[in-house]
Amino acid sequence: MPIKLENVTHIYMPGTPFMSKAIVDVNLEIDDGEFVGLIGHTGSGKSTLIQHLNGLLKPTEGVVYVNGIKVDKDSKNLKALRHQVGLVFQYPEHQLFEETVYLDIAFGPKNLGLPEDEIDRRVTEAAGLVGIDINALKDRSPFELSGGQRRRVAIAGVLAMEPSILVLDEPTAGLDPRGRDEIFWQIKELHRKKGITIILVSHSMEDVARLVDRIVVMNKGRVELTGTPAEVFSHADRLLEMGLGVPQVTSLMRALKDKGMDVPVDIYTVQQARDVLRKLLGGSGNA
């Protein structure tokens, strides 16, 4: 069990007039190798929660366990934890600062004091995992690259630390549709190839629906729902009450059902909808 949160509460600025409870009595378990989507409205506690997973924040109350490492309000040395949990914030390319792509990806391993051949292995492997041709780009300045390429270099820098858990907070924010699709495809491939635990924070119901194994829904600092995409998106009315939505294709299928068509409403990807409509049309291929 790599991740377990037990009755975790986090209070910002306790004891002051500005005190705010960001997450409240959260209990959550995430298994080895799971791909979990974390969704919720702005201010629901998503970002606060994920910062507990590598010790950037410590619980005001409760306990977090990550790969057997215990984190509570009194925890001190969390260096070992941060080696195991890679955290990628929104706009990670803003943290790029080295002169070349190679040096930026190598920054973390170098700080670990690893030998040069091990650093080179990690840089090459991490670059490959996110679709970067390191031989072609290693001597380029990261600031000469496209937005999507810079994003991938930043993610590769985290992967070069070889974390067993990768946490991604809105990793495609600000990218155009093509760049967003490329990043998500690389993340899905990373999970397939490496089998590491991935936690994806996203506002896009469509992207979460087609990528993850399980969804955790945050609302007002608490875990409101958890389950497979089909299970979670079956609570469409409840999600709407929380200021969230469902994939557009799910809304379409619900509307068709309301019009009397014999279609399932637990559809949340375009491919699923295409298959259903093709059957309704007698396999004509026009769907």
Layout of secondary structure:
Blueprint: E1 3-12, E2 20-30, E3 35-40, H1 46-51, E4 61-66, E5 69-71, H2 79-84, E6 85-88, H3 101-111, H4 116-129, H5 134-137, H6 147-159, E7 165-169, H7 177-194, E8 197-201, H8 205-211, E9 214-219, E10 222-227, H9 229-233, H10 236-241, H11 248-258, H12 270-280
Parallel strand pairs: 3-8, 3-9, 6-7, 7-8
Antiparallel strand pairs: 1-2, 1-4, 4-5, 9-10
Task: Write structural notes for this entry.
This protein is an alpha/beta fold and 287 residues long. It has two domains: 3-229, Rossmann fold (3-Layer(aba) Sandwich), CATH 3.40.50.300; 247-287, no CATH class. The chain has twelve helices and ten strands. The chain has helices spanning 46-51, 79-84, 101-111, 116-129, 134-137, 147-159, 177-194, 205-211, 229-233, 236-241, 248-258, 270-280, and strands at 3-12, 20-30, 35-40, 61-66, 69-71, 85-88, 165-169, 197-201, 214-219, 222-227. The strands form two sheets. It has a six-stranded mixed β-sheet with strand order 6-7-8-3-9-10. The model has no long low-confidence stretch (mean pLDDT 90).
Count of the domains:
2
Mass-distribution shape: globular
* Backbone structural class: alpha/beta
| Largest sheet features | 6 strands, mixed
**How many H/I helical runs?**
12
Q: List the strand order in the largest sheet.
A: 6-7-8-3-9-10
Task: Indicate the mean pLDDT.
Answer: 90
- How far is it from the N-terminal to the C-terminal residue, by CA? 43 Å
If classified by CATH, what would the architecture of the largest domain be?
A: 3-Layer(aba) Sandwich
Helicity level = 25-40%
What share of residues are in beta strands?
A: 15-25%
Please give the number of β-strands.
10
- Strand and helix order: EEEHEEHEHHHHEHEHEEHHHH
**The CATH homology group name of the largest domain:** P-loop containing nucleotide triphosphate hydrolases
Radius of gyration: 21 Å
CATH class of the largest domain: Alpha Beta
Q: Could you tell me the CATH topology label of the largest domain.
A: Rossmann fold
